[in-house]
Amino acid sequence: MRRAKAAVGSFAFLLLAPGVVAGLVPWLLTGWEVHLRSPYWMPLRIAGVILIVAGVVALLHAFLRFVVEGLGTPAPLAPTQDLVVGGLYRHVRNPMYLAVGAIIVGQALFLGQLILVAYAATFLVAVVSFVHLYEEPTLRRQFGEQYEAYRRGVPGWWPRRHAWRAEEDP
Questions:
Q1: In terms of Cα–Cα distance, which of 52, 60, 83 is closest to 164?
Q2: How confident is the model at residue 167 (pLDDT cuts 50, 70, 90)?
């Protein structure tokens, strides 16, 4: 029952938070209008599609980890019961934020819309501030030394090459 509630809550939060940030706001800013149609822009448009697809896959994977491993949601109102450290979280502590950023930058490249580059930069400042001021202190209080060991072993923003294992912590 707890896993079903976590799945429903996570899906709702997926639509609400990343859906608005990486879907609704970019659409409001651009109307999905392609500005650069020149064949010279095709490599950037292809790179944009790759970033969008990779971002969506990573985002869905990260949300699934919250349901399966954490027995909760990414939403602060319904947090996980357990610290999520599996899957992509073994490489980087903030894969959801990186995934949403990749989707926004991918849209900027695909559409040739510089406004989305500025929006991506604003998003980055906002999430780094949120993580530093709210998420990390909250996780530190909730999970104590388990979170500190994880934090020592896994970088926040630049993925490590090899998956972290808890037994690596000195």
A1: 83
A2: confident
Q: Any idea which architecture 2-164 has in CATH?
A: Up-down Bundle (1.20)
Cβ-count burial of 74 within 10 angstroms (0-12 exposed, 13-18 middle, 19+ buried)? buried
146 burial type by CB count under 10 A (0-12 exposed, 13-18 middle, 19+ buried): middle
Question: In which residue are the tokens 């938070």 written?
Answer: 17
Terminal C-alpha separation, the chain: 37
Give residue limits of the domains in the chain: 2-164
Separation of alpha carbons 9 and 142, rounded Å: 20
Q: Which residue type, as a one-letter code, is found at position 1? A: M
Distance of CA 95 to the CA centre of its chain: 4
Number of C-beta neighbours around residue 38 at 10 A: 8
pLDDT in tens, 9-38: 888 899 999 999 999 999 999 999 998 778
Q: What percent of the chain has pLDDT over 90?
A: 76
Rounded distance between C-alpha atoms, residue 75 and residue 13, angstroms: 6
